[in-house]
Amino acid sequence: MRRKKFNVSALLGWFARNARDLPWRRRRDPYGVWVSEIMLQQTQVKTVLPYWERWMEALPTIAALARMPLPKVHKLWEGLGYYRRADNLRRTAQLIMENHGGQFPHRYEDVLALPGIGRYTAGAICSIAFNQPTPILDGNVIRVLTRWFGIEGPPRHGPTNAKLWSIAGELVQEAGKEASAFNQSLMELGALCCTARQPQCAACPIAKGCTARQQGRVTELPNLGPRPPATPRRFAAFVACRGGRFLVRQRPTGLVNGGLWEFPNVEVSLGVEHFEPIASHALGVTHADLQPLCTIRHSITRYRITLEVFRVALHSARKLPSLNLLRSDSAPSLNPGQWLTLRHLRQLPFAAAHKKILQCMEAET
């Protein structure tokens, strides 16, 4: 059956009038676009903006990124989460220096072969930076296409996903010399009008032809299926101080948040009430006096995590203890930790929740 005609020109006109002034759009070079697309994965634009600006100031070129030590890359990324993205950025920069003479590759196949770059990101870079008619399909574009064409199947799997990629490819080919603007306009429409909640159909430039709007099914599409139930998890973290130094450890490469720093912490059962024995066991001391410092709540995928943080007064320890007992089957290679000054801690990249611990400590000093 012939696909209904999508109003490409109307969308392009709307984008020309309504596009947000984003810094990577001003540059439109492949390096800036690449960094922005990686930062924007699972992260909102308003969060990314200051990170992208700081990153470009510190690392203005691919060569600068390739040379930067990984801990300093992590420090620039600190707070964005999913640190493997930063690791892949640096590794990819090194490969570009080694295999492409320091120039970001133009061929879609070469871009797709780089670490941390999938089909969507490769299409975004090639279309936005090089104006190539390569399709994109992210959450924003999925919403626009499934609603406008009335596509009912699960959009990220099987035949429905293949159909959406095919439509995206046909549309960007139709846009021709406006491939860069068109792909950006699809994403912008999904971000500003065709939103997941409370879509602004009255402001949409292509609402007239939208199947979901005509059928009163805007809130039903895309069909993402039921969300998995949230799982609560509880952790206790301990801020131990001796002689103006605090006990912290670096997570090994290969684990979640590998290379980042954290305070000693252990997962505890939801019903636990007494943390002194846990702290004593974790820190390798006979007794530990605890004082509540703060409680941090955050989410990682489907987990809803409560992190209860305590200051620790250490007793019955002739020397500064190490984290000799903080090991588990799931993380057997955690290192024993180091005692560092607050000034030194400020220079290290911390996992997001543990950076908040550091901020709580500083607020009390």
Note the run of SSEs as H and E.
HHHHHHHHHHHHHEEEEHEEEHH
Radius of gyration: 24 Å
Q: CATH class of the largest domain, please?
A: Mainly Alpha
Major sheet: 7 strands, mixed
Rounded mean pLDDT score: 91
CATH architecture of the largest domain: Orthogonal Bundle
Shape: globular
Low-confidence stretches: 316-334
- The domain tally reads 2
- Helix tally equals 16
What is the CATH superfamily classification of the largest domain?
Hypothetical protein, domain 2
Structural class by secondary-structure content: alpha+beta
- The total strand number stands at 7
Roughly how much helix do the residues carry, as a percent range? 40-55%
Distance separating the two termini: 69 Å
- The proportion of strand residues reads 15-25%
CATH fold assignment of the largest domain: Endonuclease III, domain 1
Could you explain the architecture of this structure?
It is globular, with a radius of gyration of 24 Å. Strand 1 (231-242) and strand 2 form a beta hairpin. Strands 1, 2, 3, 4, 5, 6 and 7 form a 7-stranded mixed β-sheet that branches. It has helices spanning 8-18, 23-27, 30-40, 45-58, 62-67, 70-77, 84-99, 108-112, 119-130, 139-149, 158-175, 179-192, 211-214, 276-283, 342-346, 352-364; strands spanning 231-242, 245-250, 261-262, 265-268, 287-300, 303-315, 338-341. It is 44% helix and 15% strand. It has 365 residues and is α+β, with helices and mostly antiparallel strands. It folds into 2 domains: 8-220, Hypothetical protein, domain 2 (Endonuclease III, domain 1); 231-364, Nucleoside Triphosphate Pyrophosphohydrolase (Alpha-Beta Complex), CATH 3.90.79.
